[in-house]
Amino acid sequence: MPRRSILSATERDSLLEMPTSKEELIRHYTFDETDLSIIGQRRGPENRLGFAVQLCYMRHPGVMMRADEEPFAPMLRMAAKQLKVPESCWAEYGRRENTRREHLVELQTIFGFQTFTARHYQSAISNLVDQALQTDKGIVLAMALVEVMRGQRVLLPALSVIDRICAEAITRANRRIYEALTDMLSADHRLRLDALLKRKEGSQKTVLAWLREAQAKPNSRHMRRHIERLQALQAIDLPVGMDFLVHQNRLLKLSREGGQMTPADLAKFETQRRYATLVALVIEATGTVTDEIIDLHDRILGKLFNAAKQKHQEQFQRSGKAINDKVRLYGRIGDALLEARKSGSDPFTAIESILPWEDFTASVTEAKSLARPADFDFLHHIGDGYTTVRLYAAPFLAVLKLRAAPAAQDLLDAIEVIRGLYDSNVRKIPADAPTRFIKPRWKKLVVTGEGIDRRYYELCALSELKNALRSGDIWVQGSRQFKDFDTYLIPAGRFDELTQAGALPLAVNTDCEAYLQERMALLEQQLVSAHQLAAADDLPDAIITDSGLKITPLDAVAPDTAQALIDQTAALLPHIKITELLMEVDAWTGFTRHFTHLKSGDEAKDKTLLLTAILADGINLGLSKMAESSPGMTYAKLSWLQAWHIRDETYSVALADLVNAQLRNPFAAHWGDGSTSSSDGQRFRAGGKAESTGHVNPKYGAEPGRLVYTHISDQYAPFSSKLVNVGVRDSTYVLDGLLYHESDLRIEEHYTDTAGFTDHVFALTHLLGFRFAPRIRDLGETKLFLPKNGPGYEALKPMIGGTLNLQIIRTHWADILRLAASIKQGTVTASLMLRKLGSYPRQNGLAVALRELGRIERTLFILDWLQSVELRRRVQAGLNKGEARNALARGVFFNRLGEIRDRGFEQQRYRASGLNLVTAAVVLWNTVYLERAVSALQEHGQVVDETLLQYLSPLGWEHINLTGDYLWRRSAKLKQGKYRPLRPFSGA
């Protein structure tokens, strides 16, 4: 029997927590008529109340009350109210111990409650193993176990017993996972896996360490090295389908554990566990390297296209003076010809008056050489980069196991032709090679009078392959990001079961006709309302004319009277070091308890070391520089702690603690109730070693960078942060933050700027229960769509873009629901699906139908925007909070010139997560002390206008010392449960 504790002390306490919200109290402690009848049979009000209270405890949390225990006050109050007896009766209850014991026996007999026995113990372990095959998080298993026992009316055993049950279930699940990953291995497989732990020839690294190296610069040399890694992984030749034998959560956990082990550590593992860990490492590495190879190909082609565009522009610049001279010359000739026509003189003489005929003839020839075809673009320069692509194309195409949808079969056939040319060392493309995939733009370069041009055929095919992989028309076996579209979704059979049971986790009516009828009725109503206002020029601060829409800019949100209060409270906030701030916030919330050991699940023993590693991420200092700046710290200690205790999920749950503390803080309610949020991307330049991993987006200039996409609540709490590619539209990640955060926030309305919206996002946010409200630049050019053709809405005509295609929504309704349900349940992330649905050139039925659904919601939103100044103010206020938070983040992330310089994507993610955690801590600390500052003003006799408190902000950092040596000493002035003093009060 495992002895290691699975649950922390806090987690154990949470299992038996009494409900606190009104809704939970009603759900758990409302008596029905049968209950009241049974309770009423007890003699005396004190016995009825005592009997009822014991019943409540048996139902929730599912335990017997201790003899010396006082009942939970809200529950006692609710029970007494239903029984119409005074709460004070409890004091009279149970003076005879026999009374309580008799009532306990009666409750078990009448209501069927069972005492936990050895039979229940074994049954609980068996039932929990299936869930332990999916997750080894003790609290998740314990909560599932408790819910089952409550449902079966089995009274909960001691918490130590629940802990042992979970531990045993995990142990059994681990054995089954090891068996599943090793039973199909042959002796040769085991030899090849053992070889991973040996040194790679000519290197100081093991083969396994070499295989797990991150991608480098996007060039052909590094591409070939990365392809070698994938070839080595494929040479292990694991049995087909092994990656489906174990739940992805457990497979990833096993891989992460193995990744932190040295070869010596792995060699010490029991044989079955060692091979299972190596299999998990190979499966995860194969998926990672496959995706990285595709990303490198994408970036190499991106560089070639950018270079071609640059050459194209330079060519025009070089020809610019000659073209300008010709235009001016022909302008003079034109004037002379016009004058000749007017006077009736000879036109040829007019030309010769400007320049000799021979010079005119030469100028015409020169003009022809300067002129370009009407469809001329930069593509003909792409051929200059063919050598780069040719250096890796053969192994690249050979190593990828490609499959295609029917729409892309012609392209896949072309890829097979190119593979064959490399295999047989043939130069010429056969005349019958597939060409239907070639776009008109490429046609003139690929198909020439002499046949098919090899360079441009291959470049065109590889470019179209990049697009098809993005959209999902072509997928790759072994990949995680480029799988078959259907495999990302809930299995069709499971979806049918949920649909028939009416259990789809969506926020809309899942009957298509009922849904469309309701939305069309609302759309008609809004169109009529907006049209009437527009026709009467009564739209608030807006007017629609033939030239378009004009909206009056909003006034400044904060009144001048708020500035004095802002200055006064800021002057009172204590000066504090960032290290002291983190320690104080941890004392309030205990967020560091979530950074548990990857393998054992234990909390970090040295909190100072942990906070140092977190701060190294948050201020972008890095572990080596942080070790130099923190007395008593070493790089080795920090690196070990980061490897075992800091992960994406630990950052996520720790952040949730801070966000929840902000949500519960009464002062934060002045800024909002936590039901609205905004999101925005913040670009950080990729410098140093990270420069080669950064992406370029012309919106931000020519320098490579990374984007941190952050969601912030109306209470200023940054509840989600994600490191993303700057080349991908912000809208791709809007839903991820709303759906996958760990906090208690229940967001209802969400704001973004223009980059955050697409029709697909409008559709999915509505289906998933969020109101989407973006601030759209050039709103007048964003068209409205009508339910049907016909006269009417003349006043809105400049903004009308067409009619809705409701039939395609009906046709693909089941596909839309399946996609939305898959995203909601976490089968696939919203960002991955949005990337595929929005990728060129895929225009499949689902993408089009979802776009039409989004047009309905976008039209409704714009009509609301036209009629509601309040909506515009809410959106502006929400986005202003996000922009102000970005300024704080920039101030905190100041080291290394604010550049991300870590080459590994995992380390870059930790930088983003650490930054978000530190900013959340600053926001919470400022909120607490702003409240104290306001109270201090009131204590000194100043009248504070409550309506002005909404204009205070917890995003200031002038009083926080972010630089210097990082010492972790608790302030002598700060006693347990106390606060540090404010700065001296100087009066109004």
How would you describe the overall organization of this protein?
Belongs to the transposase 7 family. One of its GO terms (molecular function) is DNA binding. This is Tn3 family transposase. By secondary structure, this protein is α/β, with parallel strands linked by helices. It is built from 37 helices and 15 strands. Among the domains are: 9-179, no CATH class; 203-375, no CATH class; 401-483, no CATH class. 55% of the residues lie in helices and 6% in strands. The strands form six sheets. Strands 10-9-8-11-12 form a five-stranded mixed β-sheet, with helices on both faces. The radius of gyration is 34 Å and the shape is globular.
Quick description:
Among the domains are: 9-179, no CATH class; 203-375, no CATH class; 401-483, no CATH class.
Total count of strands: 15
Strand portion, in percent? 5-15%
Largest sheet: 5 strands, mixed
Unreliable spans are none
Number of helices: 37
Strand order of the largest sheet: 10-9-8-11-12
Distance between the termini: 67 Å
* Overall geometric form: globular
The oligomeric state of the chains shown is: single chain
Structural class: alpha/beta
Question: What Rg do the Cα atoms give?
Answer: 34 Å
Q: What average pLDDT do the residues reach?
A: 88
The helical percent reads: 55-70%
